[in-house]
């Protein structure tokens, strides 16, 4: 398997499942890892120096620490702009799966699931692909995978599975459609036909809270294991991976080590995105507004916990029922996980990318509740929190740098500076789709914004 994106999540999740399989005696598969942009140079260099090995620290909600060495990444490919080594590895007949971890914004999709060519990186990548070039500044996942598939076709290396390992809803379907559009726009009709016949893009759902490694982790790992590990990572003890069993060139026997291989990932995906991801953002935005730094602090604040609990109970569970999952139990497990003080996940990390999280995590529940003629009082708290958070950003009053790959800063400033910011936020079609400007949405978020103001005032007096 070739994995694109050597960040903490991949190393705490996909690589761990393969390590479990290796530990069980199945050594038929290994991982090659690479980045397609010059990110995390220090981590990649450390992984290379350590032969791909690193330490994973996990912490349970009860505070139990565990340390294990992960050795499933057998090859670390250094970044270089042409991506020649990455393309060669992906085109090798022995490579049967190319997987990747990408943020929601990194797919460059508009509200209709089409490529959004207003992004300069994407437009430049299509032009490079049209000229038959590979790599370069700002390469996208589509450009990298297109180059791999073009080389694979030329080498007659056979079919390959393209596997998303991230939080994009319907990730395999949407990536596959975006890839075909990318190749079509690049004008390569022969490659387009080959890709349609020789690839699969299964949908998948992944879950493990993996905060950025804190500065003290290296010393903690050395004290516990004796290893001076410059690439150590930390995460919660909980882990889950659900994949649609649609592979065209074989796959590891993941079912032996706890991966759920299913016909449809949709009910698991919807539960995770709406209950875990949206609630995570709710807690991060709310916590930031009352001066908290960490997710566990907000989870243990009674007012914030009630917002999260009510959002799931009042609005999400009715939308997702009936479900093969016990949604109320899942809600409670999620809140317990968020309350783990040892994880020390920051509000800064989780609060990021609100302009993709509103349409991806929150708007579907709003649309479904309104379509059913039901109230949206509880879910409306989430955009109200985000608006208050965004207004802090607009004033330069956030305690940290806000990162949002999908945000057009001019649009965000215009929302905050509007005579009626609630109406401006609720009228943004990119955020809300078909219900943008709906009077019921505006009224609910206006009411919720008043409750958020009271919440902030109460928090400031604690």
Helix content: 40-55%
Put simply, the count of helices is 20
Distance between the termini: 52 Å
Can you tell me the overall shape? Answer: globular
Mean model confidence by pLDDT: 96
Give the strand tally.
12
What characterizes the major β-sheet?
A: 6 strands, parallel
Describe the fold and architecture.
The chain is α/β, with parallel strands linked by helices and 462 residues long. The protein is 50% helix and 11% strand. The protein contains 20 helices and twelve strands. The chain has a six-stranded parallel beta sheet with strand order 5-2-1-6-7-8, sandwiched between helices. A three-stranded mixed beta sheet has the order 4-3-10, sandwiched between helices. Strands 9-11-12 form a three-stranded mixed beta sheet, with helices on one face. Helix 5 runs parallel beside helix 6 and helix 10 packs across helix 15. The longest helix is centred in the middle third of the chain and has 24 residues. The relative contact order is 0.10. The model has no long low-confidence stretch (mean pLDDT 96).
Q: Which terms summarize this structure?
A:
alpha/beta; 462 residues; 3-stranded mixed sheet; 6-stranded parallel sheet
Topology:
Blueprint: E1 2-4, H1 8-12, H2 14-23, E2 31-34, H3 41-49, E3 54-59, E4 65-70, E5 73-77, H4 84-91, E6 97-100, H5 120-130, H6 141-155, E7 160-164, H7 171-185, H8 189-198, E8 199-200, E9 204-207, H9 217-225, E10 233-236, E11 240-244, E12 260-262, H10 266-289, H11 295-299, H12 302-320, H13 327-338, H14 347-351, H15 354-371, H16 381-394, H17 409-417, H18 421-426, H19 429-432, H20 439-460
Parallel strand pairs: 1-2, 1-6, 2-5, 3-10, 6-7, 7-8, 11-12
Antiparallel strand pairs: 3-4, 9-11
Helix pairs in contact: 4-6, 5-6, 6-7, 10-12, 10-13, 10-15, 10-16, 12-13, 16-17, 16-20
